[in-house]
Backbone:
């Protein structure tokens, strides 16, 4: 068995052909481009004794629900790793523990081997992976510890840019993103970070135009392309350009172009935000998206983040009964975030669908300080505050809605929020 190297110079125990395919697959995963799974699978086809290829397939089956035999590939990876390097054995152990629900070994592995880029990517919640923690500071620390190992590497710069925007260090995030994209125009993390910076700083026209250029150019081969389209649509919604939102939805976000969890997270959440925006009318039917979803995504979602979007989706289709079921299911889960955040969220949206907008607003106000526990980005979790504002307006509680909207406008200018604010004014002055 020959010894070769991965993308960052770490030894790999496998044939030259297998390692070439593996590196191609990992490169696609790091750039969030299509071809990751195919490349990894090809590595094992070329060399069935390649331990890290088996480990990566198990990881992708676990994280992405890829159609692979997760237990079988894990067993092969563990068996074959006894003939590899210490770093590879640690890598396989970290993957096996992570799949089993214990991410501690993965975090410890990255302390010793920060250049293990695939596992560093897995550790951090981004567009690609769910991460090992929903506590932002813990994710930040994992990435920042690795900085001396990577220096100015384009991929790491994009990952760090995403962390910097979460820390509201907008200028740093933009500089890192742009530098990364100059070297690698398909760098998905860098695109994602820049999209968030444009949104959070209210640069909606510039953000939409830049994203459109990227989607039609280097981004054409991107994986999870719908999420970048969601970002562009969010800019258009913020500008009050309903015609543009409709065109983007129909061309880039409607089924069957987008299916599965991305349809729930991107398409359904957009339709709900659109539906509660002042002046919105004649929207596409969210029921058409829900018809194509696996019922388990809505009834027993695999994570609090997915559960948040399940609740929003059920609210969008006005399904009071299933919201009640989701509330009771979440309350019975062992993960405290389900019981303490998801269940109250489902209950609040249940009240809204039942016609009690004031009760919904009260429940959501109590939850706002805890929604970070659901994971995802601030832009994604903002849908909960959007819903609270809409509920306050529906309940006629304008004096309570006004300071919430004012605070948002103090942070960034947004036509949509100005329209929300206009709804709080006395009828005669609108």
Residues:
């Amino acid at each position: 068995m020959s010894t070769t190297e991965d993308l960052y110079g770490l030894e790999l125990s496998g044939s030259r052909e297998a390692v070439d395919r593996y590196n191609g697959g990992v490169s696609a995963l790091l750039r969030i481009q299509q071809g990751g799974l195919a490349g990894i699978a090809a590595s094992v086809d070329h060399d069935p004794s390649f331990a890290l290829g088996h480990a990566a397939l198990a990881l992708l089956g676990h994280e992405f629900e890829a159609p692979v035999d997760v237990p079988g590939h894990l067993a092969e990876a563990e068996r074959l790793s006894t003939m590899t390097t210490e770093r590879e054995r640690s890598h396989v152990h970290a993957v096996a523990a992570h799949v089993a629900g214990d991410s501690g070994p993965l975090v410890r592995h990255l302390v010793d081997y920060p250049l293990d880029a695939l596992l560093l990517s897995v550790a951090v919640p981004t567009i690609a992976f769910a991460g090992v923690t929903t506590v932002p500071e813990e994710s930040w620390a994992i990435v920042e510890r690795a900085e001396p190992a990577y220096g100015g590497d384009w991929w790491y710069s994009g990952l760090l840019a995403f962390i910097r925007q979460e820390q509201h260090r907008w200028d740093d995030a933009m500089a890192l993103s742009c530098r990364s994209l100059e070297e690698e125009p398909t760098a998905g993390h860098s695109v994602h970070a820049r999209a968030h910076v444009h949104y959070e700083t209210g640069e909606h026209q510039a953000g939409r135009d830049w994203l459109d250029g990227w989607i039609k150019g280097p981004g054409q081969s991107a994986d999870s392309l719908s999420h970048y389209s969601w970002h562009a649509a969010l800019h258009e919604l913020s500008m009050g350009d309903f015609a543009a939102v409709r065109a983007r939805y129909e061309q880039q976000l409607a089924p069957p172009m987008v299916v599965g969890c991305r349809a729930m997270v991107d398409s359904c959440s957009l339709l709900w935000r659109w539906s509660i925006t002042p002046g919105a009318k004649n929207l596409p039917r969210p029921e058409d998206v829900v018809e194509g979803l696996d019922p388990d995504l809505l009834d027993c979602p695999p994570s609090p983040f997915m559960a948040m979007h399940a609740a929003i989706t059920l609210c969008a289709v006005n399904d009071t009964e299933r919201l009640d079921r989701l509330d009771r299911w979440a309350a019975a889960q062992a993960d405290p975030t389900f019981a303490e955040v998801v269940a109250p969220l489902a209950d609040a949206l249940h009240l809204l669908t039942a016609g009690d907008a004031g009760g919904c607003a009260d429940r959501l106000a109590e939850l706002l300080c805890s929604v970070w526990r659901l994971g995802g980005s601030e832009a994604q979790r903002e849908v909960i505050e959007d819903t609270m504002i809409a509920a306050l307006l529906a309940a006629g509680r304008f004096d309570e809605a006004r300071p919430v909207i004012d605070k948002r406008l103090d942070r960034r200018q947004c036509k949509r929020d100005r329209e929300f604010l206009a709804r709080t004014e006395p009828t005669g002055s609108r």
The mean pLDDT is 95. Residues 3-123 form a domain with the Serine Threonine Protein Phosphatase 5, Tetratricopeptide repeat fold (CATH 1.25.40).
